Structure prediction request, 77 residues.
Amino acid sequence: LKKLILASPKKALEITGYELDSIPPISIYGLKTILDKKLAENKTIYCSAGEKQKLLQISAQEIIENNEDILIEDICG
Prediction:
């Protein structure tokens, strides 16, 4: 994860089919999901729901259980 960079808006749309601020936390495209360790400790997470101005309330456990390829790492330090 030392070379982890944020995708540009164009690249995010190209890879995921979602605009950068609309990417949901559960991948249906076989992409690896990376979840910060501290975020994984939260019972409730509010995140993008796949559409602008729509939020999803989900638990970290649901994100973990519903992603086949997930890494839980210390991203934010």
Summary: The two ends are 12 Å apart (CA to CA). Helices lie at 9-16, 37-40, 60-65. The mean pLDDT is 89.
